[in-house]
Amino acid sequence: MRDFLTGMDEWLTIGQVGTRSGIAPSALRFYESEGLIRSQRSSGGQRRFHRDVLRRIAFVRIAQRVGLTIQEIRAALATLPSGRTPTKADWSRLSRAWKPRLDEQIATLERLRDRLTSCIGCGCLSFKACALYNPSDAAARHGAGPRYLLGDAPPTGRADRTGLG
Question: Which of 14, 86, 116, 128 is positioned for an S-S bond with 80, CB 3.0–4.6 A?
Answer without folding.
Answer: 86
